[in-house]
Amino acid sequence: MSLPRRQIDLFLRLTKTGIARQTSQRLLGWGWWLIEPLAMISVYALIFGGLLGVSRVSRIDAYPLFLACALIPWRWFNLAALRGGAALTQNASLLTSMPVSRDAIVLSEQAAVGVQGLTGLPVLAIFMVVYDCVPTWNLLFVPIPIAIMVLLAVGVGYLMCPLSVIIPDVANAWSVSMRVVWFMSPGLYSLEQFPERWRELYSLLNPFVGIFEGVRRPVHDGLPPLWGPLGASFVWAVIAFVVGRWVFKRLSPVCIRML
Amino acid sequence: MSDAKQSEVVIECRDMGIWFTRGSRRTMLRQAMRRAFGRTVPEDSRFWALRHVDVDVRAGVRLGVCGSNGSGKTTLMRVLSGIYGHDEGIIDRREGTMSLLSLGAGISHHLSGRDNIYLLGSLNGLPRDQITELYAEIQDFCELDDDVLRTPVRYYSNGMRTRLGFAIVAFITPDVLFLDEIMAVGDTTFRSKSAAKLQELARRARCVVICSHDIGFLKRHCDEAVWLHEGVVRASGDAVPVLNEYADFAISARQVS
Question: B253 vs chain A: nearest CA distance in angstroms?
């Protein structure tokens, strides 16, 4: 068997293992992948949309759908970065007992999360039906921000992977900083609520502006994505991938000896 | 010169050394960063697990690696098979597929026995079709029925897990096979079956490196041997004299202690 075919075969098997790790011990298995985002959207919609009145103040229609457009890619990114980042420690016994490709290990974790992330997309469809959103051709743009988000997550996963072996506190620091980034990104509120003079800079510096708006505008508003912020997100994703891959390549041989 | 010594060298290892950092977590972090970015790590922070190691793995030769605990046997296997990089010297690998087999390595407790057969096959470079062809033979060998193989491995007894792990690795044919403390396993019946399978496996592979504390096993199965002591090669050459020398050393060390 040729090397690429062997690598693909191995990658698919490891992906299956990654999926099994998430589903095999649960009675509802894959069902949790739908229940979890639905529950999170409901809680956020109730608190921010209902109690705090964010949707009323900002005049946002179909607030749960508005939230879902950000929360679903956000959850995907967060899981991918976390699980990708833990790939070396999770597979320590395998990596120290078999000459197996470290890239295959990291990417298969990302792919397993990708399958889980894709199950969030039907949740978007459910909310579109519930809120009578008429699909437009602009929906065809949705894979673009999703692909950018995946590239960003892979890059961050690569970066976190060796760092979390060398510095165990990385996982804690990550979860704290991710909470901050979530509230600093237009997930619960709209981009229009941000002061206009800072909006452009904000869109350039925060990669999630382009990603959230890239999903939200086609799904919630029936409009094409904002190409400027989406371009900035793409640049951030490329930087994250290049830096993450470089750090992974430099540090992972050292990390293997520390597992 | 014996035939073994004339045969083609598959892995050549010259003056090889590998070191690890030791100390507090903070020291290890600092040294890991220095090392990763090409800066020199102070000699007093280094722990040389292996140094000045010269080993040739030859086609058609079964090489035994012996030595007391902490002598560097497993590290040597990991370096030769490419799991660890080395820090000094040269390692020249001239073969394609290498498998380091240690029992239970790679088995996922979340997957069923059946899926683990496919996973371990893939990890060892077997294509899916070939695993499917071998499946019935593997199942027959590990003596686990369909219902058991559909069950997640975390519900298996230790004996069942060992049999499954051994059965999968026993059907792989790499060019270079590294056996890290894999001997005959299981109950009396399975033990003789696994011993026979191990011999067949060693015959099928182009060359075999066996790491073990069992001197008798190494004498029976190896043509050449390397005795490692505190990270350096204490003796190497034809198996029987090297293993006898190590056995004498081990006995005298035990008497002294």
Answer: 30
